[in-house]
């Protein structure tokens, strides 16, 4: 089991570590890398996985519902505690709800469970992204127009991929292979970018960051536990939900907070210390998943 955990996590930490080391001596345009990933490589990966007829999406309806409940339920579960601690909900709650299902989730699941886990990883990633750019933006500004969703390449790729899959149209193998190859670039690229971001950790707000590092995975796992049983999730879908629930806050939370001027420095601490805390949380969760299965 220890060998399985190491085989999964060492490539993740090695690629992220390369990003940290490179960022220490150079000043890479990390925002440009993230833009390239989110506007080109990730949409290609999403479309290729969804459009592939070998991944019957109706089988993932329960997992998609569970992922949505984990995201929204985490916010509802932590709301009373946030009010009691007199924290700003707009600052603290989004990082607790919207996790790192892209930069860390997809690579981690593929490395842990192989290419067979890719459809499930993409499904939970799409759910998290759609909720982030709808519910998440509404939380920060209730006047945010929801039509902005339709301008996102990931949303357009999801709609197109779903349409192809549900229509039964079989795309040429060479086209799907090319899209898969280009989309797969995003997996190491997202980990590399995450490693560069780790250099921005601000320990000035370490207490809030440490609190978030505990509450983010804890709230997700508390919500996920009954869902595995209630929705009868088994195999890869159950393990995907467990890993998804334990993921740290998404780096995107910081970018959104910066755009909306919602205490971006505090959000940065929550995000980056939360990702640092995942070095402890993720091995434990993977150990339990490998030991007991879904």
Write the layout of secondary structure elements.
Blueprint: H1 2-25, H2 30-51, H3 61-84, H4 89-97, H5 101-113, H6 118-140, H7 153-167, H8 173-184, H9 186-197, H10 206-230, H11 235-246, H12 252-260, H13 264-292
Helix pairs in contact: 1-5, 1-9, 1-13, 2-6, 2-7, 2-8, 2-9, 3-4, 3-6, 3-10, 3-11, 4-10, 5-6, 5-9, 5-11, 10-11, 10-13, 11-13, 12-13
InterPro entries: Mem_transp_PIN-like
Transmembrane segments: 6-25, 32-51, 63-85, 152-175, 181-199, 211-230, 236-256, 268-292
GO biological process, one term: transmembrane transport
Description:
- The chain crosses the membrane at residues 6-25, 32-51, 63-85, 152-175, 181-199, 211-230, 236-256, 268-292.
- One of its GO terms (cellular component) is membrane.
- It is found in: Membrane.
- Its main location: membrane.
- The chain is mainly alpha-helical and 294 residues long.
- It has a single domain (1-293), classed as Up-down Bundle (Na+/H+ antiporter like fold), CATH 1.20.1530.20.
- It is 78% helix and 0% strand.
- The longest helix is centred in the C-terminal third of the chain and has 29 residues, at 264-292.
- It is globular.
- What's the CATH class label? Mainly Alpha
Structural class: mainly alpha
Q: Helix segment count?
A: 13
| Helix percent band | over 70%
Q: Which second-level CATH architecture applies?
A: Up-down Bundle
Rg on CA atoms, Å: 18 Å
Strand content: under 5%
Count of domain modules = 1
Counted beta strands: 0
Question: What general form does the structure show?
Answer: globular
| Oligomer state of the chains in this structure | single chain
Strand count, sense and barrel status of the largest sheet are:
none
Low-confidence stretches: none
Average pLDDT confidence is 86
* CATH level 3 topology: Na+/H+ antiporter like fold
H/E element string? HHHHHHHHHHHHH
Instruction: Give the end-to-end Cα distance, rounded to a whole number of Å.
Output: 15 Å
Main location: membrane
Protein name: Transporter
Organism: Halomonas salipaludis
Keywords: Cell membrane, Membrane, Transmembrane, Transmembrane helix, Transport
